[in-house]
Design a protein that fits this description.
5-stranded parallel sheet, 17% strand, alpha/beta, 356 residues, Heat Shock Protein 90, Rossmann fold, single chain, 5-stranded mixed sheet, 2 domains
Length: 356
């Protein structure tokens, strides 16, 4: 049933307008405005924001269909057209203009009520459809850019593997033992790099919001897991990792947050002077988010102004950004004058509301 729905009546025949207003009152609607001009109908819709516009097809100035099209573009509102007769051409034009219903003169209260309800229901469906289409378009654009980044980042280490493997096949009898070690070591590193990229992509693919158990995090355990996975890198670069004694509690999903720490710490180690001095930290912000960071203590003042200062953006940071955003946070790179640069990410604080 219609209760107190606000209707703008657009009808240039005064007698018909009076009849429509009486029928609207009969079915529980409120007439918020009346006009007999198509252009005025657009302006009044924008100003009054009615729940639905009831509009005659034939109007001075803009026709009903032209006015409906303008309303759809400038101030989307359900529109019901009033017409003396219905033709296929009229139906097609009205559909293209976004009209949600029709009424054939003479009008009765029962048909009026049904047409208004159908128009408002169709309008809600249309708004949702437009939203979904826009989301899909945005996701497709993002996916295209992401796919390009993935292909580029995998192709680079793959080219190294192929190049060194071909060299080993061609020059294996003339290479020294040291050269063989270098070639094989390069292949190994490139293979690990590709494996990391694939692992991150699989992690992202599996991290659908409905499949994640978001809970207060044991951040110390997540960091321990990340450092264990990076033990060979830490040993190779002789890195020193400085951690706080305790962590603020945030909402999150442990496996994904561990992946963030692995990526951030790995980048910090590999961009630093040897031996790297990497500091991890966290603080609760006034907005109810916890900010976690990785600081390269050896960074020069000119480093870290953008993602390129941390080994490039690439698929790694693209995946990390998507992971953190799915958990309700954000990622970023920060550099303060005279202070080392840092990578950071935020998560909702566990003692701030009920999480995500």
């Amino acid at each position: 049933m219609l209760r107190n729905n606000r209707v703008l009546v657009v009808e240039d025949d005064r007698a018909v307008g009076i009849l429509i207003e009486a029928q609207l009152e009969q079915i529980g609607c409120v007439t918020v405005g009346k006009t007999g001009d198509g252009l005025n109908a657009v302006e009044m819709t924008r100003a009054l924001r009615p729940d639905v516009v009831l509009m005659d097809v034939k109007l001075p100035g803009l026709s009903g269909i032209q006015a409906a099209r303008r309303i759809g573009e400038e101030c989307p509102t359900p529109v019901v057209l009033i017409t003396g007769y219905e033709t296929p051409e009229l139906v097609e034009q009205a559909s293209e203009a976004g009209v949600g219903g029709y009424l054939i003169k003479p009008i009765n209260a029962k048909d009026l009520e049904r047409a208004l309800m159908i128009a408002m229901a169709r309008f809600e469906d249309l708004v949702e459809l437009r939203r979904l289409n826009q989301d899909l378009e945005d996701r497709n654009e993002e996916l295209d850019a992401f796919a390009y980044t993935v292909a580029h980042d995998i192709k680079n280490p793959l080219a190294l593997v192929i190049g060194f493997a071909e060299a080993l096949v061609r020059y294996r009898t003339s290479l020294s033992e040291d050269e063989l070690v270098v070639y094989l070591g390069s292949i190994e590193k490139a293979g690990h790099q590709m494996s990391r990229i694939i692992d991150q992509l699989l992690m992202l693919a599996r991290s659908r919001p409905g499949d994640m158990k978001v809970e207060p995090l044991d951040m110390a355990a997540a960091v321990d897991g990340a450092l264990q996975r990076l033990v060979h890198t830490i040993r190779e670069f002789q890195a020193e990792i400085i951690r706080p004694d305790s962590w603020p509690v945030a909402w999150g999903y442990g496996p994904l947050v561990e992946e963030v720490w692995v990526d951030y710490i790995d980048r910090a180690i590999k961009r630093s002077r040897k031996p790297p001095h990497i500091e991890l930290g966290a603080a609760t912000q006034v907005d109810g988010m916890v900010r976690f960071w990785v600081v390269d203590k050896d960074a020069s003042p000119t480093q870290g102004d953008n993602q390129d200062g941390w080994g490039g953006g690439g698929v790694g940071l693209s995946v990390i950004q998507r992971i953190v955003e799915r958990l309700g946070g954000e990622v970023g790179v920060e550099h303060k004058d005279g202070q080392p640069s840092s990578l950071f990410f935020t998560l909702p604080a566990a003692d701030h509301g009920k999480g995500i």
